[in-house]
Model the fold of this input.
Amino acid sequence: MTVPDTGPRVEPGSFRDPGNRVLHRRGEVLRGLDERAARDWRSLAASDFFRDLLATGKVCGTEELVPVPVDLPWAAVLRHERIPFVSHPYEWSFGMLREAALLHLDILAAALAAGFTTKDGSAYNLQWRGASPVFIDVGSFEPLRDGEPWAGYRQFCQTLLYPLLLQAHLGLDFQPWLRARIDGIEPDQMRRLFGGGRRLRAGVLTHVHLHGAMQARNARASTSDVRDQLRAAGYSRDLALATVRGLTRLVRRLAHRPAETHWGDYQRTCAYSAADRRAKEEFVDRATAATGPGLALDLGANDGRYARIAARHAGQVVAVEQDPAVVDALWRALRDEGERRILPLVMDLADPSPGGGWRGVERASFTDRARADVVLALAVVHHLAIGRNVPLPEVLDQLVAYATTGATLVVEFVHPEDPMARRLLANKPDGLFPDYRRDTFEALLAARGRVLRRVELPSGTRTLYQVVVGG
Done:
């Protein structure tokens, strides 16, 4: 995707720390620092621990631009590695959130040992290179002042620890909770969920009930008052490190074993024959090979079979699947393979992530982020059009909205007589979808792009199309 050559654009989600702002300019990701932040950065850049974090890929690649570009009025400007696709924590699986939390704690422990700390503890400080998390908020590091608590503890609890506790101890998917509140789950909410005997479950008494009680006790105290109290009580870097190690042990112990779902065994239970599957794989391979190394979306990715094929040719593949358990299994497999080109995400395509936070733009919507060079929509249209009652023209409008002009759309139409379509139609009133027909679908498709190829699968009840969007 070509990035327009425009002037600096401030990232809408970077306003919370006035000392540094993230900027976009001519395809580069920059960070402007004020005088204090610039001093902190130079101390950080000179430290061995930070160089180790960069070398191991735990922190995004960062370098200072010298001299400061004339069009950027900051004391210092950093250039960051560009993350292939920005995702949000409510789009991650349990295992992904847990892995991100462990990386956050690992980085904090290294910082404390070297005389630094982080101002933030938010899950939004992490992103992904494929199946591997990476810390992106370089502006969060600052020198440690003795006697000060970790300023990011509350954020860490609300956006990382509490969602993990919710799913590990109660079996509740955390994604809707994080999507509903950009600042995460409040201690008061958690206390109501973890009353009685539940308060004795791992991590709950200390990090939910005692945390909430401490907040209530110090509600009227200033930050400096709390700092003075902790210093007088002998709070030290060693105690801070002990807290981080305790959190790390807790997070490592948290586990979630999801119940079996229909989608977890879809490749075995779906209606594809071996011949259908081979033809479909060949079609996807040829279509993605012709596009080149850009961003590919696999919508309804399931176990990642076609995402892996797309990754042979694309620079990055975002594999979207509704079932959190299926995404978690896919992420674990990709992690074990060392895959850095496929990012699995949890999302309902009938209810994709909206814009959120301040003015609705602090966290960009999925549609705004997903400007792809290849869009795979395989065995998706019938689930949206029949299963979710979305009008067929609107289904195609949304698929096209995920693509750049001239991008490739690979879409599968499941005929009304296909066993899966008949199963969905059996649960709907007769005659509800008179326009769900192949000829109607092809006319709608032709109005939105140029059809390059059309292949009917051997079963005779499914057809694949390769379309140039807007062509």
